Request: fold
Amino acid sequence: MSRILTVAAAQLGPIQKSETREQVVARMIKLMDQAKAQQADLIVYPELALTTFFPRWYHEDRAEADHWFEASMPNPAVQPLFDLARHYKMGMSFGYAELTPEGQHFNTSILVDKSGAIIGKYRKIHLPGHVEFDPERTHQHLEKRYFEPGDLGFPVWRTMGGLIGMCICNDRRWPETYRVMGLQGVEMVLLGFNTPSVNSQRAGEGLEQRLFHHKLSLAAGAYQNATWVVAVAKAGDEDGHHLMGGTMIVDPNGEIAAVLDGEADGVLVHPCDLDATRFGKETIFDFKRHRRIEHYGPITAQVGVIEPS
Ligand code: CDV
Reply:
């Protein structure tokens, strides 16, 4: 048996501070056209796809960053993208900064089905970085200043013939992210990322090591939960700050099934057989038979390390 979901990982090259939502959406539409030409069922764009990666910019008054946020979704700037996705009968996922009617700020991604309806929302849980300006760092990463931790958990949706979940960027480094979705039977995890190619606190950790940790995290999450993982970069030089590429699709064995070279706008299309998740889920990672939850208490009972005395 095979259940093919053809997915397009739609990498965005850099977005400069001066670029408007409308300019970015025009680029996203071009990628959607390319995905359609390759018969994609679902297109996945990166984290914070509509703007530059603004958490690198410090504002003493955090409200000054509000212009990077979307107060409604869809809104007039992104409506053409929704219209085209519905016309193409293509599912879609992208990330954006969400400002709720109650004034909360989240780093969010949405899942849109083939009818153009938003059927899923995820709010980033593992926020990296810091709250205050840090002069010790080579660059700022102020996600903890501008966003609240997500409050929706890690849901999985039954749609497009499969079980699909989402996470965002730094979430991919945490095994709990995948396992919570794995326990809901997830067959495909969609994730967008903006990863600076140098560690702001360790100059020696550059592009090569960052790509290694990226692949390691995706492979482990995919294999240990027998799921496809679709990882989509925003890449290249944004106003002098470099983001790595590394857009790729990882199969349920943890192998890289397809990878996109370069740091420009581009689509990576791959037919993903959702039934390829069955073997792992029914054998070595048959959770019901093999998990030993009586020994996992510390994972939810404590945050930091408690060393033995
Ligand atoms: N946008 C991110 O979450 N970036 C982090 C960086 C700061 C390490 C990441 O995990 O790629």
